[in-house]
Amino acid sequence: MSDPVELGHQRIVPALTYADAPAAIDWLCRVFGFTEVRRMEVGDGRIGNAALSFQGEQIMLTSPFDEAGTRSPRDLSALHQQITVHVDDVDAHFEHARSEGAEILAEPEDQFWGARSYWVQDLEGHRWTFQQQLRVVPDEESAAQMRKIASREAPP
Questions:
Q1: To pair with 17 at 20 to 30 A between CA atoms, which of 7, 23, 25, 145?
Q2: Does residue 118 sit within a domain?
Q3: What is the DSSP string of 118-131?
Q4: How confident is the model at residue 98 (pLDDT cuts 50, 70, 90)?
Q5: d(CA 140, CA 40)
């Protein structure tokens, strides 16, 4: 058996489903700065598998396939996942995404866990967090802050 890392693969690769996968590929490349690596069309306009790269890391995406039970977030009643991407300059990334008309959910802000981040939703409802690490925060400090926030949000 070969080690996937030795073969140039990541150990974990997120795979996202888009109702209009070809449009999603174009949008993710134009707005978020991904590069298309591979596109496998199945002949009826759907994408069986595509790979996009961002600074050496990859995601996969596909069209919906009933036989595989995959759906776009458009067809779901609630958020089921979120993708976090680390960037070198989160403010510049934010400005580019905003100038391309991306749906911004939260503008860049320094976070208690030591990152500066913003939240954005893509053209089909996948939620993305782009962040730049500013400082290292001990887990105990982050956990205490999370408990503090959760206690404020809990109903009386």
A1: 7
A2: yes
A3: EEEE-TTS-EEEEE
A4: very high
A5: 45
What are 56-94's pLDDT values in tens digits? 999 999 999 887 788 888 888 777 788 999 999 999 999
Q: Is residue 144 part of a domain?
A: yes
Question: Is residue 3, in this structure, part of any structural domain at all?
Answer: no
Q: Over the range 43-73, which residues count as b (16 or more CB within 10 Å of their CB) and which as e?
A: eeebbeebbbebeeebbbbbbbeeeeeeebb
* Rg (the chain; Cα; Å): 18
> In this structure, is residue 113 part of a structural domain?
yes
What does DSSP say about strands 57-62 and 115-121: parallel, antiparallel, or unpaired? unpaired
Domain CATH for 99: 3.10.180.10
Closest CA to 51 of 38, 33, 35, 62: 38
Domain that holds residue 63: 15-153
